[in-house]
Amino acid sequence: MELLGKNKQELRAYCQSLGEPAYRGAQLYHALYAERNLDLASMTNLPAALRAKLASYAKVTLPQVKQKYLSADGSVRYLFGLSAPEEQSRMKAAAVEAVFMPSEGRQTICISTQAGCAVDCQFCLTAQLGLIRNLTAGEILAQVLLPLIEMSRPDTSPAEEVAEENALAARTNVVLMGQGEPLLNFENTFAALRILLDKEGVGLSPKHVTLSTSGVVPGIERMAKEVVRPKLAISLNASNDEQRDMLMPINRKYPLKDLLAACRKYPLRNWEHLTFEYVMLGGVNDAPEDARRVVKLLAPLKRVKVNLIPWNPGELPFKESKEARLEEFRRILAERGVPAFVRYSRGRDVMAACGQLALKEVSSPQLTVLS
Ligand code: SF4
Description:
The protein is an alpha/beta fold. Helices cover 33% and strands 19% of the residues.
């Protein structure tokens, strides 16, 4: 039985199935997620007899870190190898990526929810892989746990290590913006999020976790009803349906009218903003009239902000926006009451920037292969 990704209820039921009291499941949950101790043999909060049973019947499988690429800007791109989960033998082995981005005082981990993606956004290299498979809840969680464990110093005592990891977790932002459309793998993504956002689990704050969607309207409506949920970001990237149909074919299924209606109904908590991401593609969606149309589109919504993301030139047939154009776009939004920020992607040199996660090997001279 694979334990990583199981919630407290499931671990309690599992311990009972081994003839143990249910509260042992809660202890197992604490060890796995609050202490981030993934080694069953060293869970000293459990009796030796239970540890022996777990050694025979259970396991905690972490993705294999196949490569780690260190960017000149300090970001680390992880390439994880995922074996086919045992209980779901029809699922394929796969590889997937996560990016760790340290910055002063805080750090951000960008994680994947699917291997590849079926959504086919024209500006995204992941789209070229197609959908390989959904990630399990354990595989999604592991992308957060591994960097947290790695970042704490190995030469400390176990108690100091947990304290250090907890301090790191408190300074960590997680963004679900890597490979895949999280709302098309809703069950597993939210199973992982409930553990990540549980104070007795990994203990991240919902204020520091953001799920980004290409605009899957039924998924947004479902997310609105979740008790435990992260912040929501919408990948907009266009100012009208014609443009969006071309850049993001999912718009033909869920056009802007329906997407914005779902956003209007979305129940924001009093501390929350709805974020719209807009990749600036030179000569495609970056004209002043695009900015004015975006203002009109967002006018009926309360508490929004727009992140303008400069394009990373590469293999795809798009150009960067000129800096003056980017600034004019930002100014038109800001002057009309839509807060707008330019967000440069991190890790460009190691193919870790937005839309670049497509399992590519990189050979940049600035690249350091760590393992
Ligand atoms: S941008 Fe996101 S939703 Fe669109 S193809 Fe890429 S991974 Fe999928």
